[in-house]
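2024-03-11 09:14:02 DEBUG pipeline.ingest accepted 1 chain
2024-03-11 09:14:02 DEBUG pipeline.ingest length=128
2024-03-11 09:14:03 DEBUG pipeline.predict start
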Amino acid sequence: MNWLQAGLAAAAIAYLLNQAAYKLWHKNVIIGAVPLVEEVAKTMTAFFFSTDIFYTHLAFGVIEGLLDVVSGKKGWLPAFFAVLAHSLLGWVTIKVASETNMLGAGIMAAVIVHLVLNIALLYRFVKS
């Protein structure tokens, strides 16, 4: 169950750093600091807790999704997408890290996928 602790720690770290980044760069953080902060937080907490990267990412996604629902700003569909997206990002991290034997490459691949997902979501909702 260390992955749950790692997921909680990653969510807390990402929340604090994302809030600080938002104060500096406002809404631009979603296509800048957020993907980097979250992918590093999730993967490195899993590393430091010596636990499963995928389940840490999954736990992070569940926490983010629950916060979206509880805040009342978003519904169940974005919450489900948060779980799905962060699980996918965990898989990307593991796959690239295992293929390259470099954890940093896995993190950067997940950052790029996260960035593309955020841009796609922004395009979808800004265009609407």
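2024-03-11 09:14:41 DEBUG pipeline.report The radius of gyration is 14 Å.
2024-03-11 09:14:41 DEBUG pipeline.predict end
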